[in-house]
Each structure stands twice: as structure tokens, then as C-alpha cells.
Amino acid sequence: MKVGLFIPCYVDQFYPKVGIATYELLQKLGCDVHFPMGQTCCGQPMANSGYQYLTKGCDANFIANFSGFDYIVCPSGSCVLHVKDHLHDEKQEELATEIRKKVFELTEFITDILKVDHIEGSFPFRVGMHTSCHGQRGLKLSQMTELNAPFFSKPEQLLHNIKGLDLVSLTRKDECCGFGGTFCVTEEAVSVKMGQDRIKDHESHNVDYITGGDMSCLMHLEGILKRQKSNIKTIHIAEILNSLEN
Description:
By secondary structure, the protein is of the alpha/beta class. The protein has 13 helices and 10 strands. The protein folds into 2 domains: 2-113, no CATH class; 126-242. A 4-stranded parallel β-sheet has the order 2-1-3-4, sandwiched between helices. Strands 8-6-9-10 form a 4-stranded parallel β-sheet. α11 (188-204) crosses α12 (215-227). The protein starts with a strand and ends in a 5-residue tail after the last helix.
């Protein structure tokens, strides 16, 4: 299984350990992983700001880098959803359509494609799972609490068998952290207050770490935690799952 590793630009620049953990984890799970060196931004920031027409170069570059893989895997639900919904190229639309169907968020790929229902590892800490909006509502990685339906969570399913990990049950499982990409810039005060409220839920459950599938949300929460001089740390789910023994 030939897998193209799609690493968001902000992860590449600020949190390279997340990209490395994702690469190592996929290898340990038996994938033939490749990192296309020419990849850049997928175009989401421009599209979110109303400038979708400026992303043609990003789209063409993404297609050039990721065509030919069986699957494309990314440790970011928001970037995956953007590509799934918005990757187009009038010169090679058929290829763009094919690639859109091959893009998967990391935990989605592990549970749905690799059919791995548990991962053995060790992370002896009390952990709160932040469920990002794009992953939950766009990619359906977990159930929305406002629906009268059985609960499920693909990320939590993978965390449950990690040795020593105490996964808490939050009061508001799917509350937005307030990041929202460019929203945190245009509506800074609202964004920060939402982040503070999200952190309070984790604090009330005495967590050591907040984890999640989108480093963008965790970056937002991390900034607030540091300003509050909190002892709570953030960690991407890939870094926890990568404690898997060879």
C-alpha cells in the first residue's frame, strides 16, 4: 500500500514532530510511506477567507505531488476536508476527482482503511480529547452530541487501549475551541473566550494533556494555556499513538 504523507504547512513549520510521528506510525502499521518534497499549502487559508479563486496554483501543485498514490494521509481533519471538498483543476478535473477520494485523516485511515481497531502503546497520563469541528462535522470522525444516535469516536477508539492512558469524559464533548482558522484573527476576542471555555472543561477534569487530531486547534489552546501559566500540555494524537512498539 503506497501512501502519500500530506503534512499541513503550519505543522511542517511549527510542529514537525507531529509529521515525524505520523510518518513513523504509518510505517509501523505496514504502509509504504512517501513524503512528496514539493508539497506546499493546500489553499485552505485563502479559501476560508473568500479567495478560493486564488488557490488554483495550490490545487495544481497538490495534484502534481500526490497523484499516483493508493492513499493520501494527513494528521489534520481541516486540511483533509478542504481537499476533499475543494480540490479542482479544469485542465485535469478527472485526476482531481480521483485524488479527492483518496485523501484521509490519520485516525480515519487507520480505522476505516487499515481496519485497525486498537493500538498498543504507553502514555501514562490523564488526557482530554478535543474533538475538532471539521473532523467531527465534516469527516464524521465522531458522533455529534445533539443527535439522538449512538456515540462513536474513531480517535477515542484508538486511544482506549493505550497503556496507562486515562481518557476523561468531558462535559461538552464537541464544543468548538474558537480557532476557526482566520476567525481567530478577525474575531480575536470571541476566539480567545471560546478557547478559555474549552480549556475550563479540561481543567475541571484535572487532565495532564489535551490531545486532538488538528494541531491548529491545539496550537490555539496551547497559546491560551501558556498565557494562563497552566501546567496542562497539548499533544497531537499521532504522537500518542506512535508509542506503538515495533
